[in-house]
Specification:
By secondary structure, this protein is mostly helical. Helix content is about 60%, strand content about 5%. It has five helices and three strands, in the order ββααβααα. Strand 1 and strand 2 form a beta hairpin. Helix 1 packs antiparallel against helix 2 and helix 3 packs antiparallel against helix 5.
């Protein structure tokens, strides 16, 4: 069984064992995502889904009252990844921030790529223009799974 890249330690924190290339990627993604979050990109719909699908007026009110708070939470999670991408040890709170940032990145990218179950059932041609984005989506999904497994180890 391969060694997990994120492992719980005896002090209640988490060891982060990522190669330098992955750390570099994780340092750059938050800035890109922050720019997108400040836009009106339609691919953000999965990050800020409607609270009331059958009541436009109630949903507009919810968005007016809550969107800024939701946005701040997403931006805070991205800052945590940015600030700790080179660290070898994370606290519980930092790893939870990573989990939130990874989820935002995955949801946005998955929406852009229109990810469905069928994507996992087909081979992707490396020359396909979306192959790099699909590879990034797969990496973020895997890293999110690593974070969940590490956090779950303490339950």
């Amino acid at each position: 069984m391969p060694t997990r890249r994120i492992q719980r330690d005896r002090k209640g924190g988490y060891h982060l064992k990522l190669p330098q290339e992955e750390r570099e990627l994780l340092r750059t993604l938050p800035e890109q995502m922050r720019e997108v979050l400040q836009s009106d990109d339609p691919a953000l719909r999965r990050l800020f889904p409607p609270a009331y699908t059958d009541d436009t007026e109630a949903d507009d009110e919810f968005q007016r009252l809550m969107r800024e708070e939701l946005l701040e939470g997403k931006l805070a999670a991205l800052r945590i990844v940015e600030e700790t991408a080179d660290d070898d040890h994370l606290t519980v709170e930092q790893l939870e921030g990573w989990l939130g940032a990874l989820e935002s990145l995955r949801l946005y990218l998955g929406t852009q790529l229109d990810i469905t179950e069928e994507v996992y059932e087909r081979d992707v041609d490396p020359n396909d223009p979306v192959a790099p984005a699909l590879a990034l989506y797969g990496y973020l999904s895997w890293l999110q799974e690593e974070a969940v497994a590490a956090l779950s180890a303490s339950l």
